[in-house]
Design a protein that fits this description.
- This protein is α/β, with parallel strands linked by helices.
- The chain is 27% helix and 27% strand.
- The protein is built from five helices and eight strands; from the N terminus they run H-E-H-E-H-E-H-E-H-E-E-E-E.
- Strands 3-2-1-4-5-8-7-6 form an eight-stranded mixed β-sheet.
- The longest helix is centred in the middle third of the chain and has 14 residues.
- The radius of gyration is 15 Å and the shape is globular.
- The termini are far apart.
């Protein structure tokens, strides 16, 4: 795995061995950024199930200003810390070492880009989006990028949000919600 583009492009990223996290492949990550960007002029990103941190590190590399990464697993937290060091821009990243629902109560918005990539066994996307909306953590123009198993069927609409784009890549499905 690596950072694909932007000012950190080409730098390698660490991942946890085994199936503890499910890092987004470079192919899927590239496809996501082709759909939503590919580059940004500032903004805040929230990665609610950060894993290795690759999605939000890529967002900072491509022009986002600040990233908040949430991860409950201590081994993944260590990998995220190592990956953030690779950027040499640690001040742009904030790691919250809690479960997603606990972290939501600590956050202040607004976020312009949100990644929801829960482990396939923990499909909490609908609940997460409704919580983010209720807590006023989302900017008016937010994009919510959800990565799930391709068999998962997400609703067309969740709260104020509707499915803007959806694509399948191998075993993964990417669904993007906007207002």
């Amino acid at each position: 795995m690596r950072i694909i583009a932007g000012r950190f492009g080409g730098r390698p990223l660490k991942t946890l061995p085994g199936k503890i996290t499910r890092p987004t492949s470079d192919k899927v990550k590239g496809a996501i950024y082709s759909m939503i960007g590919p580059f940004f002029n500032g903004g805040r990103v929230l990665d609610l199930y950060a894993g290795s941190g690759g999605l939000s590190i890529e967002a900072i590399s491509r022009g986002m200003t600040e990233a908040v990464l949430v991860e409950k697993d201590p081994r993944a937290q260590a990998i995220i810390a190592d990956n953030i060091k690779i950027t040499k821009s640690q001040g742009q990243f904030y790691l919250i070492k809690k479960k997603a629902q606990q972290a939501l109560r600590l956050l202040t918005g607004p976020f312009d880009l949100v990644f929801l990539d829960p482990p396939y066994t923990e499909e909490e996307i609908v609940q997460n989006i409704l919580s983010l909306e209720k807590l006023n953590l989302l900017s008016e123009d937010v994009m919510i990028v959800c990565e799930t198993d391709k068999a998962v069927v997400l609703p067309q609409n969740i709260g104020q949000f509707y499915t803007w784009k959806q694509k399948i890549y191998g075993i993964s499905k990417v669904t993007i919600y906007v207002r």
